[in-house]
Amino acid sequence: MLAFTIRRLVQSIVVMLVVALIAFVMFRFVGDPVDQMVGLETTLEERAQLREQLGLNDPVPVQFVRFIGKAAQFNFGTSYQFKRPVAELIGDRLPATLELSFVAAAFALIVGIPMGVYTALRRDSWLSKFFLTVSLVGVSLPTFLIGIILIFIFAVNLQILPSFGRGAVVDLGWWSTGLLTASGLKALILPAVTLGLFQMTLIMRLVRSEMLEVLRTDFIKFARARGIKNRAVNFGHALKNTLVPVITITGLQLGSIIAFAIITETVFQWPGMGLLFLQAVQNVDIPIMAAYLLLIAFLFVAINLVVDILYVFVDPRIRIAGAAT
Amino acid sequence: MSHVTGEGAGAGTAGRPQDEAPSSLLARALDSDIWYSFKRSKVTIVAAAVTALYFASALFAPWIAPHNPSDLASLSLLDSLNPPAWIEGGTTTFVLGTDDQGRDVLSAILYGSRISLAVGFVSVLLAAFLGITLGLVSGYVGGRTDSIIMRIADVQLTFPAILIALLIDGSVRGVLGGINREESAFYVLVASIGLSFWVQYARTVRSSTLVEKNKEYVQAARLIGLHPAIIMARHVLPNVMGPVLVVATINLALAIITEATLSFLGVGIPPTQPSLGTLIRIGNDFLFSGEWWITIFPGIALAILVLAVNLLGDWLRDALNPKLR
Amino acid sequence: MSLRKITTTLVGAAAAVGIMAGAASAETTFKFAFQGTLKSLDPYSLNETFTLGTLGNVYEGLTRRGPDLQILPALAESWEVVEPTRWRFKLRQGVKFHNGNDFTADDVVFSAERVRSEGSDLKSRIQPDVVFEKVDDHTVDVILASPNPILHYEWDTWAIIDKEWAEANDSVRVTSASDEVATTISLEANGTGPFKITSHEGGVSTTFAANTDWWDHGNKKHNVDTVEFSTIASDATRVAALLSGEMDLVYPIPVQDIKRVNDNDATVAMTGPELRTIFLGMDQMRDELLYSNIKGKNPFKDVRVRQAFYHAIDIEAIKSKVMRDLSTPSAIMISPFMFDNADQFSRLEYNPDGAKALLAEAGYADGFEVGMDCPNDRYVNDEAICQAIVAMLARVGVTVNLNAQPKAQYFAKVLASGGFDTSFYLLGWTPGSFDSWNVLTNLHGCRDEKGEGGLFNLGGYCNEAVDKLSADVLVENDPAKRLQLITDAYKMTTEEVAHIPLHQQGLAWGVSSSIDLAQRADNQLMLYYVNKN
C-alpha cells in the first residue's frame, strides 16, 4: 500500500514535469511578450534590451530549468502585465475560482442526483422523459450563450441578479470569500448555474445508468426477495452502491470544471484564475500562463491521486489490480 | 484501476467479474432486439431522422442553400441586417434574415453545419483511433507499457480541450503567422478536440481488454501462436466496440459544442467561412441590439443537432447494454 | 502593500449593491467599467490611453487638457519661451502630494529624469537632449537643442512624481517586468491630482476617493466622493451592467447597442468623434509581395492599383452598416480636429467600374490575390470592416485572404518587431501630440527594413520630398507657414495614395441618465468633470 502510494507520487511528479515542459515549449510560439509590455512607440533597441533582460533570448532548456528551479520554491516570476509576482496574483484569484467551481459542483450534485434517481426509478414516466430531454438541452448550447442569455433575463430584464463580478467579499486571512455577504451570494448564482449545468446533466445521466444497472443485480433482487421495503432497497442499497462511481467522476470532473471556468469567468467578468489566464494568453504573459497550467496540472494530478488511493481503500477488488500495475 | 471511465459508458463492463460473456458487435447489430428497441422508441426515430437530415443537408449544402455565403463577391453590405422574412422589413430572398455582412443566415447555417459536423466527425475519428489503439496495447501488453500509457493519459487529462486548443492555436499562429487561417483553424480544432478526447476511449477499451485477455478463447489464440496484433484486432476489438460506439456518439455532440465554445475564445473557424459556433459568436454581439436572428437561428440549429445526436447516443447505450433490455 | 490588502476587502468587484452604504451618509459613489485593465499604477510603465487617462485623475502633469482638449496650466501656472531654445515654467505654489509632501521644482527635474530612464515607456515625452534646470523652488528652465513648438503637447500625460517619496520607497527606477518584487509605485499612487487611489487590484478593480486637499478643489466641477472602476472585458456583459443599473458609465459600448442604450429609460449613449484615424496600408517597399499570387513584381508599387483599391471601397456603406453612422469618412490621415486645412481634401469616389478599369490598365484585368492582416479586438468593429472590404474588393476581381487576429498576434506580425510581415493591412493611428508632424514622420516617413525612419509606415511608402517637408515642419515656429508645409505634404501623400484612409471612428459611451460628464475626443475619462444627480 505504501509502495503503491509512493510509486504514484513519483509518477505524479513526472507528470507535472512533462506538463510544464510541453507548456513551456509551446509558449515559444504564442507570440512576443515584449510587444504587449510596451506601448507602440517603443523602439526596436529598447524591445531587444527588454527581451534580453527577461531572458527570452536564452535557449528553451535553459529557460525551462530556470523556471522549474524557481517554481520548486513557489516563485513563478513576475507577471509581464501587472508587474507583480505571479504567486501573489494567483493567490488573489484562486479563491474566486475555487468558490465558483465548488458551488457549481455542489449545484450539479444536489440537482443532478435526485433527478438521476427519479429517472431511473420511474424509467417510463412522463416526467422522467421530460427531465432527460430538458437536461440535454442544457448541454446542447455552448456555455457562453447560456451565460449571456441568463444575464439577459436575470440582470437586464428582471434586474434581480448582478451581471458581473463577485459582489462584496470578506477576507479570511489570505482567502477572500463571497459566501458571507448577500451581494456575494447573489453574484454567485448565475455563474455557478452556467458552469454547473453541464456537470449536472452528466451526473444525472450517470446516476441514472448506474442505478439501472445496480437495480438489476442479484443482491438487489435478493434484498427484494427478503422482503425489504422498496424505499429501503432503492435508497439504502441501490443508491449507496451508485454513489461510489458518481463521487469518483465528480471528483475527476472538478478539474475540468475549473478549466471550463475560463469561459464562465469571461462571460461574467468573474475575477478568478480563468479570467487571469485568458488575459495572459491574449497578452502573452508567459509567467502567468506557466503558473496557471502547472496549478491546473497539480490539481488534476492531486485529485487523481486521492481518488486512486481512496479507491484502493474502498474497493478491495482493486487492490489486486493495483498491485498488478 | 479500471474505475476511470468517461460518461460511465464503459463502467458496466469494467472490472465486474460477474459479467456474462459479451457477444460480438456484429452479431449484436444484426440482432433484431436492437432494431426492435429502435422501432419502439419514437424519440429515437425522430432523433435519427433529424441527424440524418443534418448530414444530408450538410453534404448537399451547395445545392440546397439559396445563396453561397463563402462567395464574398456576392455579399453586399447593403443587404446586411435584414430581419427574417415574416418580420417587417424582411424579404423572401433571405428567409431567416441576414447577418452584419449581408450573409444569408439560412445558407450560412447550412454551410456552417457542414463545417461543424466535419470538425466533430474528424476529431472523434482521431480520438477514437488514438484511444482504441493505445487502450488495446495498454490492456493487452500490460506491465510497463500500460503504466506509461496510463500516465500519458493523466498528462492528457490535465489539459482540457480549451487549454489544448488555446496552446495549439497560439503555436500554429506563431509558426504560420496566421496565414491560411481558414484551413489551419480546421486542423487546430480537430487536433485539439481529438487529443483531449482519446483518453476516454483508451480507458474504456483498456478495461474491456483486461477482461477479454483472460478469456479462454484469447488464451487459445495465443497458444496457437497468433500474432498479438491479430488477436487484438480480430478477437478483442470487436468485443469492445459497443462501449466505444456509445462514447463516440456522445463525443460527437460534445465535439460540436466544444467547437462552438472555442470560437467564443477566438480560436474557432474564422468568420469568412463560419461554422455554427462562429455564427453564434458573431451573432452574440447583436443580441442586445435587437438583431436576434443572427444568433438565435444558428443557436437553435446547433441545439437541435446536438440534442439529436445525444438522444441517439442515449438510446445506443441502453440498447447495447444487455442488462437493460 | 498593506494598504492594498486591507482595502481590497471592501471592494471586490464593485457589483456590490450599495455595500458602501455602511457609512449611512450621503456619499456619492460613481461606478464605471471599461473593457481594458489598469495593470500597473506606475505612470511611466505603459504608454497607453486608458492607463494614462485613468492615472491622470491621480497624478498631474505640468499641463492638462480641457474638455475640448485645449492645453491648460496645471502644475505649471504659466510658461514662456524665453529664447527659441529655452522655455521657462513657473510652478504652482502650495500644491501637495497625497502623502502631504510639497510639490517643488526638484520633483519636476526628478520626473524628467525618471521618464527618460531605462524601463520607461514614455521616453518620447521629452527628447533625450533636453535639459531641465531648477532656477528656484518654483521655477524650472527647459533647454532645447533646437526649437520645438510642440515641446509641451504631450505633457498632460507626463505625470509629476514626488521625488522624496519615490526615493524613500525604492521607486526611483521604473518598474520593470524583470523585477522579482513589485515596487511600491506599481501598487500605490501618490500624485497631486483630484483623486486618490484607495485600493487597487490589478486587472480587476480600483477605487478612488476625492482628494479634498487638491489645489483646485475650490473650483471642482465634480460632486462624487468615491469612484469604483471595474474591468468588464466582454461587450455584452458590459452593456448588461449598464442596463441593469449596476454601473453609471460603461465604455466603449458596441455601436450596434447605441439604440438599445438610448431606448432604455435610465441610460443614454454619449457619442462623439474620436481622434483615431482608421486606414489601410499596402506594402510598397518589397519587390515582390509576401502574400500574393503575383510573382516577380509588386502590384502595389503601381499607383493605379492603389487608386483602384481606393475606388473599390464603399465607405458610406461601411459607415451606415458596420459603424451605424458612428464614423466620419476621412480623406486624410489625421482627424480634422487636429488639422485646419482638412476641408481642402476629398476622398476618391466609390467607383467599382473605375477600379476595374484601373486594374486592367495596370495589367491586372483578371485581378490578383493578396493576403490581408487585420486585428479583431483593437478598433471599433475592425474585423467587420475588414470583412466588408474583402467583399468589396472581391467585386472588382481582387481576391483577398483575410487574416484577422487578436491584437497581440497582429501587432507582433505587422510591426517592426515582426519585420513588417504584411502585404495589406488595417491600422488605426492617433497622433499622441495631436499634431501632424507625428503623422508625417511615423506613417509617411521613409524607413529602412528595421523601421528606422517611419516606424509605423508598415507599407514602406517613401517620398523624399515629403520627408523634407516634414523636417521643415518640426522646426518651423510660425503657425501659418507650418500649416502650409503640412498641407503641402498631405497633398503629396494623398495624390500618391500612400495609404487609403477610411474614417475617424466615433466614441460611444453608455451613461446612466443621472450622470453628467465631459466626453473628451481622446477617450480619456476625467473624473473631475463627473456629476451624479
What does this molecule look like?
The complex is a heterotrimer of chains A (325), B (325) and C (533). Chain A is mainly α and 325 residues long. Chain A has a domain at 94-270: Orthogonal Bundle (MetI-like fold). Chain A has 13 helices and 2 strands; from the N terminus they run H-H-H-H-H-H-H-E-E-H-H-H-H-H-H. In chain A, strand 1 (170-172) and strand 2 form a beta hairpin. The longest helix of chain A has 39 residues, at 230-268. Chain A is globular, with a radius of gyration of 24 Å. By secondary structure, chain B is an all-alpha fold. Helix content of chain B is 68%, strand content 0%. Chain B contains 12 helices and no strands. Chain B has helices spanning 25-30, 32-40, 42-59, 61-64, 105-141, 143-158, 161-176, 181-213, 216-223, 228-264, 276-284, 293-320. Chain C folds into 2 domains: 3-248 and 514-532, 3-Layer(aba) Sandwich (D-Maltodextrin-Binding Protein, domain 2), CATH 3.40.190.10; 273-506, Dipeptide-binding Protein, Domain 3 (Dipeptide-binding Protein, domain 3, Roll). Chain C is built from 15 helices and 19 strands. Chain C has helices at residues 2-11, 49-55, 105-114, 163-168, 184-187, 235-243, 258-263, 303-312, 315-322, 352-361, 382-395, 407-414, 436-442, 464-475, 479-495, and strands at residues 29-34, 63-65, 71-73, 76-83, 86-91, 131-136, 139-143, 195-201, 205-210, 226-231, 249-251, 267-282, 327-329, 369-375, 399-405, 424-429, 499-512, 515-516, 531-532. In chain C, strands 1, 8, 9, 10, 11, 12, 13, 16 and 17 form a 9-stranded mixed sheet that branches. In chain C, strands 4-5-7-6 form a 4-stranded antiparallel sheet, with helices on one face. In chain C, helix 8 runs antiparallel to helix 10 (352-361) and helix 14 runs antiparallel to helix 15 (479-495). The relative contact order of chain C is 0.15. Classes of the chains: A mainly alpha (325), B mainly alpha (325), C alpha+beta (533). At the B-C interface, helix 7 of B face helix 6, helix 9, helix 11 and strand 15 of C.
Low-confidence spans of chain A: 318-325
Number of strands of chain A: 2
Helix/sheet category of chain A: mainly alpha
Q: Which assembly state applies to the chains in this document?
A: heterotrimer
Globular, elongated, flat, extended or rod-shaped: what is the shape of chain B? elongated
Write down the Rg of chain A: 24 Å
Low-confidence stretches of chain B: 1-22
Q: Classify the beta-strand content of chain A into a percent band.
A: under 5%
| Strand residue content of chain B | under 5%
> Biggest sheet of chain A: strands, sense, closure?
2 strands, antiparallel
Rg of chain B, nearest Å: 23 Å
Average pLDDT level of chain A: 82
Query: What's the average pLDDT of chain B?
Result: 80
Question: At the third CATH level, what is the topology name of one domain in chain A?
Answer: MetI-like fold
**Outline type of chain A:** globular
* The first-level CATH class name of one domain in chain A: Mainly Alpha
What's the end-to-end separation of chain B, in Å? 28 Å
Distance between the termini of chain A: 13 Å
Estimated helix fraction of chain A? over 70%
